[in-house]
Write a structure and sequence with these properties.
By secondary structure, this protein is an alpha+beta fold. It is built from 15 helices and 11 strands.
């Protein structure tokens, strides 16, 4: 059972009751992230996400953490390119107390100066950790190679220089523009009914003022670059991005199926060719990264430097073979079945359901329909996949990234 409520100030609530569960996952989703930032704000969405936990009008940072722990609850948050989410999971009997805590840190954070100073150090260490994680670094570089340094190419963490410069006034200005009720969805999933959820939201968010929301539409520029970052490490980390269909596109499901055939599982072509047959990589995969206006299908592999050219060539051959000869009907049916099972597995997780229904309402302003989605997947045909595949993998529009102990970028040839 799914319940939705819209408030006069623009706030939206969605509740997915899951019979038989003794726990609840709750989330506060804000439609903002790195893509909405200016150069001066670079990294501020992520920094705010950290600072929300550092003290409110009635609790300091330790008291917030201690209060969640005393309930046996889990709490966390994350920042993306166009989403920031604060969430918690607790047993159903602690739902009210847990939501009060989550609401308090979201609505009443005070951003103490001493906490700001400490957390800047923490985030700068996170930036350093990212620099020492070549897979993440390579995929960040890939986004920059495809979109440039702004909008969807912007690094979520920002730069250390920017992070060190943030003030309380900067945080308050950004929150005033982006943390507005019309840009917020509250999502519950698990052992909770609509009446309980609605009462909690009205108690803590009922007097939230409408605010002055700034809708910031990204300017999309496709760069088609091959970027490199030299690092004295053991492996070469290579990534390739091809343009794909934006979030919500009618071909989104069939592209997901094709991606699964390409690099989404152990039976996928990339895994079988690059790892199983040639032994060139431990990690090789593909995934989709979709936004409202654009998307990419990304391929990643980590390989020995001596095998870089062979691995790059092998990936290219897999793509060329798919484009030239298509996929088999057996591959299509297997992929479609994987998509369906993924939906059913997700349907049994309150964490997944909280995010699914919350994000769908935030992104599309309507309730996700499980049966309708399942019908669409079942209606996909082998011919649909072949026709869609023929329009994918535009070699003239791709971007590439390489991280490793070399100064020579990947060639487009």
């Amino acid at each position: 059972m799914v319940y939705e409520k819209r408030y006069e100030n623009g706030l939206r609530l969605v509740v997915k009751k899951m019979d038989g569960l003794l726990s609840v996952t709750m989330g506060i989703l804000v439609g903002t992230g790195a893509s909405a930032e200016t150069d001066k704000e670079d990294g501020i969405s992520h920094f705010i996400e950290h600072m929300q936990f550092k003290g409110t009008k009635k609790r300091n940072a330790f008291e917030i953490s201690d209060a969640f722990d005393r309930l046996g609850a889990q709490v966390n948050a994350f920042t993306g390119k166009d989403l920031t989410c604060y969430y918690s999971k607790c047993t159903s009997d602690h739902t009210a107390d847990c939501f009060e805590l989550l609401s308090d840190l979201f609505l009443h954070s005070t951003f103490p100066e001493e906490e700001m100073t400490r957390e800047k150090g923490v985030v700068c260490e996170e930036i350093s950790m990212n620099e020492d994680t070549p897979e993440d670094l390579c995929l960040d570089l890939l986004a920059e190679g495809f979109y440039g340094k702004r909008n969807y190419g912007r690094n979520i963490l920002g730069t250390a220089e920017n992070v060190k410069s943030f003030t309380v006034a900067d945080i308050q200005k950004y929150k005033k523009a982006r943390y507005c009720p019309e840009n917020i969805v509250i999502s519950f999933a698990g052992g909770i009914d609509a009446q309980t959820a609605e009462a909690l939201v009205e108690t803590y968010f009922g007097d939230l003022e409408k605010g002055f929301f700034e809708a910031r539409k990204p300017e999309i520029i496709h760069m088609h670059k091959s970027l490199i970052k030299q690092k004295p490490i053991e492996q070469m980390h290579l990534a390739i991005a091809y343009p794909s269909a934006p979030r919500g596109d009618e071909k989104e499901d069939i592209i997901n199926a094709i991606n699964s055939i390409l690099g989404g599982s152990m039976s996928a072509r990339l895994f079988q060719e690059v790892r199983e047959k040639r032994g060139l990589a431990y990690s090789v995969y593909s995934y989709l990264s979709a936004f409202p206006e654009c998307a990419t299908l990304n391929i990643y592999a980590g390989v020995n430097p001596a095998h870089l050219e062979e691995a790059h060539e092998a990936i290219g051959q897999v793509i060329k073979d798919m484009k030239t000869n298509g996929i088999t009907e057996d591959e299509f049916l297997r992929s479609r079945e994987q998509m369906k099972s993924g939906m059913f597995f997700s349907n049994e997780s309150s964490n997944s359901q909280m995010l699914l229904y919350g994000k769908y309402l935030l992104y599309f302003d309507k309730i996700f329909n499980f049966e309708e989605k399942l019908d669409k997947i079942n209606a996909m045909t082998y011919q649909d996949a072949q026709e869609t595949l023929s329009m994918m993998f535009d070699e003239k529009a791709k971007a590439m990234a390489l991280v490793g102990n070399t100064d020579k970028p990947l060639s487009f040839n």
